Amino acid sequence: MRRWYRRIVKLSLYTDDLREAPVDLLAVGVFSDEPDRGLAFSHVNGGTEGALEQACRDEDFRGRPGQTLVFNTHGGLRARRVLVYGLGDRERYDADVARRLAGTTARVARHCSAATAAVVLAVRDAPTGDGGVLELVEALAEGIVLGGYQFSSYLTRESRPSRLSEVRIAFAADDVQGIKGAALRAAVARGEAIAAAINMARDLVNEPANTLTPIALADAAKRVAKSAGLDYRVLGPKDMERQGMGLLLGVAKGSEEEPRLVHLTYTPDGKTKNAPVIALVGKGLTFDSGGLSIKDSEGMMTMKVDMAGAAAVLGAMQAIAATKPACVVHGIIAAAENMPDGRAIRPGDVLRSKKGLTVEVLNTDAEGRLALADAIAYAIDHTPTDIIDVATPTGACMVAPGKSTAGYFVGDDAMLKDLEKTFIRSGEKFWRLPLDPDLREMLKSDIADIKNIGERWGGAITGALFLKDFVDGSVARWAHFDIAGPVTSPKDTGYTPKGATGFAVKSLVEYVSIRATQTV
């Protein structure tokens, strides 16, 4: 098992003549609505005596989003190859488009065995002060690290590891006029730190369940805590019994692997009076067979990823420690394995939660909400102002928006506004679903306070409403992220690899960054 993601690419800045960039691969973004393809392209094309433009015409390259062309310079430039990348319409250009350009550059560099590369920054027409350029520089740094990701721990036959060791973010000096070099380097460092944390989360989700057990996940969290300077605490089964965590313990009863509840804490230097206290809670089912309500073979095939919510929280905590927001953040992970042996909970069993509510378990495959409910109750003990829980609870959440968009639930208007800002910053796609109180009727039990599943229709919503019962009256700001769809990708695209994506890490980091500037 890989211990954690290690940086393998050196990132730097380049402001000299693009034609003289001493790299194996030079990447230039082109807007589809600019007839001359932009100044950077024109400058590079001049170094090839028009051959690059001719190649674009021959290949019908029009700058459509994600369109690529790789051109061998044959000595016309110091760069051996040029990657021309379609940015789409200029008015739609944002940080996520820049991130995709950089990610594609890293992947193309691997395929053409490039050891060095440069990515040319395309600025907006009118960036709003320093922030516009710095946001794009940060996005390029993220994309480079994310696009270079590979999970090859178990490959023993021939593979094609990346040779990429250095990438320069290049731009015309006029594009950064008045922006201090320290600010640019800080933007690169922040992007690199967030991307490294996302890659660490990808490692965990890609790891097979026979090596990433609940105990191994807790050990990985301990390593992150030690390297990042976070406080670390772990609860075993006896600790959970003393805490009254009957739901989390119930989920784990059918497995030989003991459950763990992991608690990481980030405390900033300096005063935190009137600052928010944020709890991030992740579902860490390292394998979900469905228990006695067992899944079919196809449904079980990808269930090692049922700990992606925990991976997102752990990745976010690593990045939060690196970016140092001015508020306390708790990262809490409920780690267990859901298996069907003779000790497993049965449909119809009643369990008592840490909060004291009793739960009738009618489907043992709706186990993630049980584990999360006890983890949320534990988080509430630490008096947070905000709670975000992150999980892969329902396939239902993929039916309407597809697999590339996550669902989220939030009831507080102020938190909603902060989340909307968050998703713009992160570039991750979320779709708000309603906390429809009428559907709460489906969760009424004849013999317990609540049952763990409703009808088939509205399954994602009733899952969120179940968790809401464990939050109500304790904290005003709570959101539930259902990320089952986008935690894996079927193919390489932009900065996203085939396999685990590390989805939600960046959104959690950006939410904390936004809230850290506010008071309560």
Radius of gyration: 24 Å
Proportion of helical residues: 25-40%
Q: Largest sheet, described in full? A: 8 strands, mixed
Span from first to last CA?
42 Å
Per DSSP, the total helix count is 14
For the biggest β-sheet, the strand order reads 7-8-10-9-13-17-14-15
Instruction: Please state the overall shape, judged from the principal axes of the Cα atoms.
Output: elongated
Structural class: alpha/beta
Q: Report the average pLDDT across residues.
A: 93
What is the number of E strands? 19
Q: Identify low-pLDDT runs.
A: none
- Beta-strand portion reads 15-25%
Keyword list:
520 residues; alpha/beta; 8-stranded mixed sheet; 6-stranded mixed sheet; 14 helices; 19 strands; 34% helix; 20% strand; elongated
In terms of topology, how is this protein built?
Layout: E1 10-14, E2 25-31, H1 39-47, H2 51-58, E3 68-72, E4 81-88, H3 95-111, E5 116-120, H4 129-147, E6 166-170, H5 181-206, H6 214-228, E7 231-235, H7 237-243, H8 246-252, E8 260-266, E9 277-288, H9 297-300, H10 308-323, E10 328-338, E11 349-352, E12 358-361, H11 368-380, E13 386-391, E14 406-410, H12 413-426, E15 430-432, E16 450-451, H13 459-471, E17 477-482, E18 488-489, E19 499-500, H14 505-515
Parallel strand pairs: 1-6, 2-4, 2-5, 5-6, 9-10, 9-13, 12-16, 13-17, 14-15
Antiparallel strand pairs: 3-4, 7-8, 8-10, 11-12, 14-17, 18-19
Helix pairs in contact: 3-4, 4-5, 5-10, 6-10, 8-11, 10-14, 11-13, 12-14
